[in-house]
Amino acid sequence: MHGIARIREPWLLGPVARPGLGGRVRAGLLRLCAGLVAVALGACTSTGDISNPVVRKVTWFSFLNGYDIRTTCQAGAPDHLRLVHNANYSRRVRVHELVAASPALPGAAPSGAMRLMTRVIGDTTSEWLVEFGDPSSLFAPWAGQVSRVTLGPADVAAVRTALARDGLGQPAPAGTELFSQDYWWLAVGCLDGRMRFQVWAHPDRGYDGLTFPALLQARDGTGIPLRTPADEPVYANPAIMDRDAARYEVRFRLAVGPNGINP
């Protein structure tokens, strides 16, 4: 029988303390970790599994670029679409993975159905249970909340129609910069044997007019609403608050190319 410990207010991976001596120490640790991550990124490629938060940190750019999907995309490959919503990276990230359901697997789905896995990362709790026989439980709060559902052919058709209407399949906005503290959607996937890539960044590219996010949220089974720019706190002096936040948040900037994230 495994022992269980209750953890409160974790100091290592929990919400970062505000400035002060403790805040500066922890901010320094985060900056050091961020630097190590940046060095490791060049050699780390994603397998598509982001359940481990440490692995997620060092493979995040590869994950966004769909490296694991690109390596298997060819004529006849099962449809696989990844949709990532960056709603201020340090606050909330939502990932939808849509994969064609195989009729040969247990619990066979009808032709045209897709498995939808949604992971919502952010707003971690300050208390959780650690099982001594399972070290991975230490990272459970940062793995995110996960939901798995099957979308029938009609729902899949509705989502694909919305994505096409919103611009998936059209040229990506090459040259656009994506900042971790901003709001944007990224789509990368293999559909009908061809790679697709698209980005929608607030307030450009019709971000507020996107139709596919509401369709997915209504079907993903998480019960967690989409975080929007309106959910960001308003400060009397935003420049000072942003400078303060930059001391303890992990931040990054990505450059969009015609077919993916530029290295």
Itemize the secondary structure elements and their pairings.
Blueprint (H helix, E strand, L loop, with lengths): L3 E5 L12 H21 L11 H12 L2 H4 L9 E8 L4 E9 L13 E8 L5 E5 L8 H4 L1 E7 L1 H14 L10 E3 L3 E9 L2 E8 L10 H8 L18 H8 L7 E3 L8
Structure description:
The chain has 263 residues and is of the alpha+beta class. It has one domain (4-255). It is 27% helix and 25% strand. The strands form three sheets. The chain has a six-stranded antiparallel beta sheet with strand order 6-4-3-2-8-9. The protein has a two-stranded antiparallel sheet with strand order 1-5. The chain has a two-stranded antiparallel ribbon with strand order 7-10. The longest helix has 21 residues, at 21-41. The chain is globular.
